[in-house]
């Protein structure tokens, strides 16, 4: 069964990467629309969609199993971030956040399915050298830090070569996909969960915060 994913009006898709291309096929149908088709029942994968403006949309794809009683949706329309009142944190040339008088950022809270706006506070940034990292070297970041709402990941010289991963946190013993975005050369995970796992194909990197609250 084929599904269509439509990004906001005015967005132009540049390319898309599948975590496992043997499980799903993806084709561009228009400037802002993709057609996604699973190659079998019960399979799952991640998908990253890159736009000409430099934004990245991340998706978790899952095909229903043969015995599923659910009727899957076949059309998805993504509403632009402006409808949620979201603006982005600014970064300097080195990828460090700039405090601009309290820019509004969209915060996703892990245990509750709701969104709220929060003021960006440079003074809340913390966590430098307080992360334990293990996994594949090619996904190992050079710097990780956080604030009250997001985790900021910088790959340094690897930035131009790294295939941007998807991010997961463990909720009730199950890996749950969390939103990510790119600002400058900083990869932002919209979660402050103590253990975040980055996955790209068969590669992974675990990022565990060891500091205080």
From TrEMBL:
The keyword Cell wall biogenesis/degradation does not apply. This is Conjugal transfer protein TrbG. Pfam families: CagX. Keywords: Signal. Belongs to the TrbG/VirB9 family. It comes from the Bacteria.
